[in-house]
Amino acid sequence: MKTYRIATIPGDGIGKEVVPAGKEVMQALAKYSKSFAFDFEDFDWGGDYYRKHGLMAPVDGLDALRDKDAILFGSAGDPDIADHITLWGLRLKICQGMDMYANVRPTRILAGIDAPLKRCTGKDLDWVIVRENSEGEYSGVGGRVHQGFPIEVATDVSVITRAGAERIIRYAFKLAQARPRKLLTVVTKSNAQRHAMVMWDEVAAEVAKDFPDVTWDKELVDAATARMVGRPASLDTIVATNLHADILSDLAAALAGSLGIAPTANIDPERRFPSMFEPIHGSAFDIMGKGLANPLGTFWSVSMLLEHLGEHDAARLVMDAVEEIASNPHLHTRDLGGSATTAQVTAAACDFIAKSMQASELAA
Ligand code: ATP
């Protein structure tokens, strides 16, 4: 019996509701599994921790995560704390501190979900956005001088290294190669940003030579937004810089029906460190504590976590539960136009898992 060590970091807002829901789903799986178990460690980092200690997480916080097999994360954001403090103090500290350089965001319109692109079905919109997660526009290089004076200067320097571009573009080509359509779109802005993005394009053309079976094209980021709405079926795997992919993936999540469904994986492809899985949405303070949060994005993230651990059957089962719930309007939370609660959706997912695992045990 394999025991996976899992860190859970609910963070802030509805993260405190959806991460426990994700943990319940994992516990439901473990209850019936003969091959794996989970050893959870919960971390209370985030806005409340900051109010007590002046930091979003302990200085040596990463040490407690390094020996884990995976991390399930909720969100970081607090109405009383500046966004750059919550983001850099927790999520980016973990992602950059453990070099999780590939941020992977699948998007599909699930059957039963009323998505804004009316003519679209799941077949027309089935994307994976690969976001560079370690440098670029969010490298943290920059500063402010003459603060508060009229001559104040502030800079945020986008840093793109050849090695950083190469490793993420190669990761995206490999992912595209593993998907049925073998299709990759490299998002750029090399018309206006004539240094780093031109190098980005050059690297893409070089890496492409190693993947002759992958069809690839280049798209400017502004044109990419229009293409996502106008010709969604022309896209499959998409790779973009940190900022570009951040924006494109929120658009993707909204086009698929709700921010509440979309998952994210922050992957260290070399597996030197644990990878971290989280719903794409933020802390959503407007609905916090009301039982309205849609946990499906977290469940889909749990499915990606299990896939990363190599537990393919369990990953598939959790995804089946997500699709089953999506197809049942009685189990839709308010963001999907329904009135189901977080607890009801979670119970339905656990029930689906229990029944499926009992049935397969009987069949075995
Ligand atoms: P942050 O500042 O932490 O990034 P936010 O609160 O500004 O987050 P999001 O959490 O990304 O924004 O979401 C925007 C809105 O979408 C929320 O205010 C909420 O109404 C809705 N929403 C997001 N996630 C969910 C969810 N899981 N279930 C239901 N509604 C959601």
Distance between the termini: 18 Å
CATH architecture of the largest domain: 3-Layer(aba) Sandwich
Main CATH class of the largest domain: Alpha Beta
Bound molecules: adenosine-5'-triphosphate
Radius of gyration: 20 Å
Strand order of the largest sheet: 2-1-3-12-11-4-5-10-8-9
Number of E-type strands: 12
Domain count, please report it: 2
What sort of overall outline do the alpha carbons produce when their principal axes are compared? globular
Q: Give the CATH superfamily of the largest domain.
A: Isopropylmalate Dehydrogenase
Total of helices:
11
Biggest β-sheet strands, sense, barrel:
10 strands, mixed
* CATH topology grouping of the largest domain: Isopropylmalate Dehydrogenase
What's the overall average pLDDT, rounded?
A: 95
Residue stretches low in confidence (pLDDT < 50, at least 5 long) are none
Structural class: alpha/beta
Helix-strand sequence: EHEHHEHEEEEHEHEHEHEEHHH
Strand percent estimate? 15-25%
The helix content is 40-55%
Structure commentary:
With 364 residues, the chain is of the alpha/beta class. Helix content is 41%, strand content 22%. It contains 11 helices and 12 strands. The strands form 2 sheets. Strands 2-1-3-12-11-4-5-10-8-9 form a 10-stranded mixed beta sheet, with helices on both faces. A two-stranded antiparallel sheet has the order 6-7. Helix 1 links the parallel strand 1 and strand 2 (36-42). The longest helix is centred in the C-terminal third of the chain and has 22 residues, at 342-363. The structure holds adenosine-5'-triphosphate. Residues 14, 75, 77, 259-260, 281-287, 292-294, 297, 333, 335 line the site of adenosine-5'-triphosphate.
